[in-house]
Amino acid sequence: MVLFDVPGWSIPSAPSLPETSKKRKRPTSTSSQLLSTEINLEKIVERLKNTTRPATSKSSAKDRTSRPRNNSKSVNKKIISRPKPLAIPAEKGERPAKKQRIKRDAGDVPKPGSMLSGDHDTNLTPLQKGMKRSLGGARFRVINEDLYKSDSRTAYSMMQNDRSVYEDYHIGFRHQVQSWPTNPVEYYVTMLARYPHKTVIADLGCGDAALARALIPKDMAVLSFDLVSDGVYVIEADICSKIPLPGSEGAITEKSNGEGQIVDVVVCALSLMGTNWPNCLREAWRILKPLGELKIAEVTSRFTDVGDFQNLVSSIGFRLSSKNNDNTHFTLFEFTKSSRKGMTDKEWTKILSRAGTLKPCEYKRR
């Protein structure tokens, strides 16, 4: 029911207001959309330009500290890759090792296959290096005793069957030399360097041929012999058997110096090893020229009687020239070759029976 609905009476209706809304409506026309897109694109381009512009003085201190400094120190800190060191080439006929270490000491370069070839391993701790040297020293002592207590033929066979035995022995020998107050080989190098040029020297039991390496550059002729050849200085030979040099012993009926010799000096520096070592001096007499020199250096503790040793050497055909026992470790002898008659096998057997005048080097068991 309508209020005040009286006939003849009427109330005017309220005026209509335009429809309003607080929410803004987006334009729907295509032209307005294109305009908005162009504006947004211009903003994006403007932002890109701002990021590529160099930093200005208006940049904040925080930005300046966060940027990496481009100076020489940063360049030095970069890790520069360097070329790999050259590997030691394997000898001819020898299979190359999978990994080869760089030997830092040129005077002590063991060959591959030796148990002591890693003496300079940088990856080992001091304790590990000490243990390895101890094992190497024990290996040397065992080989050394075997060489002293067997004859030269057995020693030669041992070296030929396993070349590492020879390598291990001489590497251990080099370490032992470092503890000596003096080295007889160095003494002979100094002495023989004063001899006339072209002097022919035979080094019997030469080891590493240190005598040849020192004297050949001084215009000396040094012939080095040992059980294993190094392919450069050392000639392979059993020095207690037939040394590959000319010379003869002469007839049994009369005294002589033999014939055909070319050697002026024979050196036996700590090489009278084995149970048949007098045969080495027999070979020395055969290859020496008349009045040739025989130089012997031996460990002093090996002599049971120095006089018996001198008499034995004299019976082979030598005359004592001098003796030097000033050193506590070694005794040095100088002999000169003298004429004699050739000897029968029975006489040589008797001389060999006197080999006990030199005792073998033995070591305390640890």
TrEMBL record:
Principal localisation: nucleus
Organism superkingdom: Eukaryota
Positions in coiled-coil regions: none
InterPro entries with a match to the protein in the record: RRP8, RRP8_N, SAM-dependent_MTases_sf
BP-aspect Gene Ontology terms: ribosomal large subunit biogenesis
Pfam families associated with the record: Methyltransf_8 (PF05148)
EC number(s) from the headed UniProt entry: 2.1.1.-
Disordered, as annotated region: 1-130
Nucleus recorded as keyword: yes
Keyword Disulfide bond: no
GO molecular function: rRNA (adenine) methyltransferase activity
GO CC annotation terms, alphabetical: nucleolus
Matches recorded under Gene3D superfamilies: Ribosomal RNA-processing protein 8, N-terminal domain, Vaccinia Virus protein VP39
Entry keywords, A to Z: Methyltransferase, Nucleus, rRNA processing, S-adenosyl-L-methionine, Transferase
Function, as annotated: S-adenosyl-L-methionine-dependent methyltransferase that specifically methylates the N(1) position of adenine in helix 25.1 in 25S rRNA. Required both for ribosomal 40S and 60S subunits biogenesis. Required for efficient pre-rRNA cleavage at site A2.
Similarity comment: Belongs to the methyltransferase superfamily. RRP8 family.
Protein name per UniProt: Ribosomal RNA-processing protein 8
Organism from which the protein derives: Laccaria amethystina LaAM-08-1
